[in-house]
Amino acid sequence: MSLIYVLNGPNLNLLGKRQPHIYGHETLADVEADCRKLAAELGHEIRFHQSNREYEIIDWIHEAREDGAGIVINPAAFTHTSLAILDALNTFEGPVIEIHISNVHKRESFRHHSFVSHRADGVICGLGTEGYQLGIRRAATMIKAASKG
Ligand code: DQA
Hints:
Keywords: Amino-acid biosynthesis, Aromatic amino acid biosynthesis, Lyase. The chain is of the alpha/beta class.
């Protein structure tokens, strides 16, 4: 059973309460429960984390280098600012899927650039919290393909 890390950046702890017209009514705990259910169905274990601190996200990416097969990440605002998260992801060899709940391209221009997209194998945005499910499915497909060589 290989491990998929699902990492969430700043303010996502407020999911469900924060700008629900943009991010919806589901809480991060709801998202985590859905991710755990799907991962189990696909034969994977997940580590699900959220932090408002950039270094913690970097530390989890380093941890994933040791025991993770894939990373699904919603870096939130760090998407648009963090070269350090990009550098950390560049040290990880498995699939990386970037998720945004909202369609960042329909929003302010400062949300249009993503450091993380320079590394991500795929980017999902604007599909609401369903994007996490799709990201986990894609990571699982890529992990399976890699294991077959
Ligand atoms: C977000 C989009 C980012 O621009 C924003 O800073 C977030 C959430 C999303 O999931 O749509 O915090 O990553």
